[in-house]
Design a protein that fits this description.
This protein has 285 residues and is mostly helical. The protein has 2 domains: 161 residues, no CATH class; 95 residues, no CATH class. Helix content is 54%, strand content 9%. The protein has 10 helices and 7 strands. Strands 1-2-3 form a 3-stranded antiparallel beta sheet, with no helix packed on it. The protein has a two-stranded antiparallel sheet with strand order 4-5. A hairpin with a 5-residue loop joins strand 2 and strand 3.
Length: 285
Amino acid sequence: MSTGYDTQRVTTADNVGISFRVAGLATRLTAALLDGIVLGCLLLIVTVLVIAIAAAATGNSSEANTLVVFSLASYLLVAAWVIIAILYFTVSEAVSGGKTLGKSAMGLRVIRVDGGTASLGEYFLRSAVYIVDLIGVGPILMFFHPQSRRLGDLVAGTVVVRERTPVTLQTATALAPVYVRSYDPGPAIDGLEKLGEHELTAVRTFLSRPFLRPEQRAELAGRLTSRLLDRMELPPGAPERMWPPELLMERLYLQLAPRIDPGASPPVQRFHTYPGQVPRPPFAP
């Protein structure tokens, strides 16, 4: 795990780094204000109910008994305020994966510093420490801490981050862009009619990964083109067998894609050349 001033970066068990945008002081205080309004309404309802019950219990009692009842009611009311406040934050964050109404409105979420979802005990712990944070400790710590963590976050091992952009069905199913070094489809390739959607997918997948190591890319291109050439039943002396494997892959895509998938997105130009190829400026497809 590593941290920056505005980010929280964690590394998964698969050695994949994930970065979260840490919520700033102003955003967190705004979320706390919204939660305070909701919590204040709940506490007002409870206060009215307790006062009504205390008034009904005293009835025509003496002044001394009335003072005792209302004194006891005030202690119970303070205890109820504390319990309700802790339960509001704990339950809200536990059932919604780290969000309260205020945090949801501001697009915030509580997570563990390692990127995981906090447990019920951790939510309870950070909520219980609100009592200390409210007297001024929390805002001071948040102002000076790089990740705006208050005392409750430090005790519970949590951090408040901005919600990551949700993955929609459209973005989840969108194909990666295809990269080519020339938009020139070259001469017509014999045996192209023997290839179908399966082969086009294999070619597209290869061309959508331009950042493989050169040796890996050369080996993979050679294996794929060998199988594709055999599938097209080209003779040993066919010109296509003399082309660089990656050049063949790109020309196959440029000629095969319009036939099988006319609505496919156009490829992206890469400004590189093949071994022995003379560089030339890109041109429109």
